[in-house]
Design goal:
CATH topology of the largest domain: Glutaredoxin
Bound molecules: FE2/S2 (inorganic) cluster
Order of helices and strands: HHHHEHHEEEH
Strand order of the largest sheet: 2-1-3-4
CATH class of the largest domain: Alpha Beta
Number of strands: 4
Structural class: alpha+beta
Oligomer: single chain
Amino acid sequence: MIDREWGDIFSGFAGEQGDLIPILQRVQEKAGYITKGAIEAISQFLKISENQIFGVASFYSQFRFTEPGRNSIKVCMGTACHVRGGQILGDVLERELAISAGQTTEDKRFDLQRVACLGCCALAPVIQINDDIYSRMTVIRLKEVLEKYE
Ligand code: FES
């Protein structure tokens, strides 16, 4: 049985398998991530298994499966950033925050993602926190930057 909340999500869709991606996009827009409940409801609506939905959704980096934090950190893993230490920044952030990329800290203060080029390679290595870009980032500056975010 699909309740009203999901009725809104599914409105305008015929229940065909091709609806999967746009429905997932709508869920993520509304909830901020793909919840377990969403996968169950989509499975009923489209009559495909939860595993299939998870398989498709996890193929696309735009979909997340954990609740976002109050602040979202993106560490650039593009070539320019990678050769200038992006990988090390990502590793240090994972250690500092005690999470892996794709996860959210227990206090919901930060979530962390490793992403492809952020489009400002001349400033490598780059991290982005919410809408703020931090260029020529160093491990030493990381801690001080994180402190700006509650
Ligand atoms: S490679 Fe990092 S901004 Fe382009």
